[in-house]
Amino acid sequence: MKTKEELLKEFIKNAEAACANVIPVAGDVYSIKFAVQEITEGENEILVSNSGIIEQSLFEWISDDKKYLKYFDKEKLKNTRTGITPAVCGIASSGSVVIPILDDFTSYISMLVRNHIVILDGKNIVNRPRELFDEENENIFLNGSYSIITGPSATADMGPLVRGVHGPGKLHIIVTEGYDE
């Protein structure tokens, strides 16, 4: 069985291989906030999904700044370039993130904005997708809806690989390295 540190390293390697921009940070709120600010520098409005079942403190700081919109309409969704969603876990073997669909806008944020930022707690990485349904996780994953996202949107059905065609052109994964072993 792999250690949490080995899973984190494999997750980062595979997510980057899938063209995601992975930003490892310490597990504190200030490190996450700084990483988001670096990615969103110069942007006036950023859509934010409900934090739902992940650690609430990872999202609390967002309410301090008016550019982070937790409540918005479809018009804002059409015209805003960046959105933030939580990931309930990551999958090391593919570098995928598992996004909980918590409300009407979470799916839209993860699919329609040009820049999708995901916040992932590094303690919540499994080795393979089937582990999502192990005994310790089954109550979480059998009672909700989730999107599994691997890298930015891409298609190769009309010739060469093109990114950002049907969704975000960039996927940024902020993953905390603060785990206990």
What does this structure look like?
By secondary structure, the protein is an alpha/beta fold. It has one domain (4-176): NagB/RpiA/CoA transferase-like (Rossmann fold, 3-Layer(aba) Sandwich), CATH 3.40.50. It has six helices and twelve strands. It has helices at 4-17, 29-39, 57-60, 74-79, 106-112, 138-141; strands at 21-25, 46-48, 68-69, 82-87, 89-91, 96-100, 115-120, 125-126, 146-149, 154-155, 162-163, 170-176. The strands form three sheets. Strands 1-12-7-4-2-3 form a six-stranded parallel sheet, with helices on both faces. The longest helix is centred in the N-terminal third of the chain and has 14 residues, at 4-17. The chain starts with a helix and ends in a 5-residue tail after the last strand. The mean pLDDT is 83.
